[in-house]
Specification:
Pfam families: C1-set. InterPro entries: Ig-like_dom, Ig-like_dom_sf, Ig-like_fold, Ig_C1-set, Immune_Resp_Modulators. This is Ig-like domain-containing protein. Keywords: Immunoglobulin domain. It is elongated and about 45 Å long. The longest helix has 5 residues. The protein has one domain: Immunoglobulin-like. It is mainly beta. 8% of the residues lie in helices and 46% in strands. The strands form 3 sheets. Strands 3, 4, 6, 7 and 8 form a 5-stranded antiparallel β-sheet that branches. Strands 5-9-10 form a 3-stranded antiparallel β-sheet, with no helix packed on it. A hairpin with a 6-residue loop joins strand 9 and strand 10.
């Protein structure tokens, strides 16, 4: 088992990831684009990074943006990342994965399969 580094009194914490889906993003397709959100929550330290993988590739050719890192009351952190895809490219996507990465630790990921 890999030892987790200590930061002050806190042990490194792996964030939980979600890609919330509701009807609203799909309504964006009427505007010829779709934005997905990835939320990382309760991680430590603050330098975890969120990265998108589309169809298994980290070479994302669509718009990626990141929200600010926010410190929570319990000294953990939360992150957000956004992937915007135009309608034409959305039809080419079979899966979208959001990964949280930190150094040499195994990444944490959540995948959305598209039919």
């Amino acid at each position: 088992m890999e030892a987790l580094p200590l930061y002050g009194s806190l042990i490194e914490a792996v964030p939980s990831l979600t890609v919330p889906i509701d009807a609203e993003p799909f309504e964006e397709l009427q505007q010829k684009k779709l934005t997905l959100t990835c939320l990382g929550n309760k991680g430590f330290p603050s330098d975890w990074q969120l990265r998108w993988h589309v169809n298994g590739s980290s070479q994302v050719h669509w718009k990626e943006e990141w929200g600010p890192v926010r410190r929570l009351d319990d000294d953990h952190y939360t992150w957000s990342s956004f992937l915007t895809v135009d309608e034409e490219n959305w039809k080419k996507i079979s899966s979208v994965t959001c990964r949280a990465i930190l150094g040499s630790l195994a990444p944490v990921s959540v995948t959305l399969k598209i039919n």
